[in-house]
Amino acid sequence: GDTIYAAADGQVVYAADGLKEYGNLILIKHINGYISAYAHNSKMNVKSGDNVTAGQKIAEMGSSGTTRTMLEFQVRLDGKPIDPTNVLPLN
Fold this sequence. Notes:
Layout: E1 3-5, E2 10-16, E3 24-29, E4 34-44, E5 51-52, E6 57-61, E7 72-77, E8 80-82
Antiparallel strand pairs: 1-6, 2-3, 2-5, 3-4, 4-6, 4-7, 7-8
């Protein structure tokens, strides 16, 4: 149930459970082709089409699509996964 926050400003392009291996999944589109993904949520506080700001509560951590409570976080650029430490602020 820990709070999950948006990593950066953007628009929610997906908030559903259609990809079973990711459970309740939120995808946020950001500037310059970046997408952030937040998987396995127990509760989603946003829906497709919503605009979000960095630090906004978007979900609660859960175990949907997996056998343990966890957050799977990814950053993608043009569809390819990248190391998030290269693009996220240090704080």
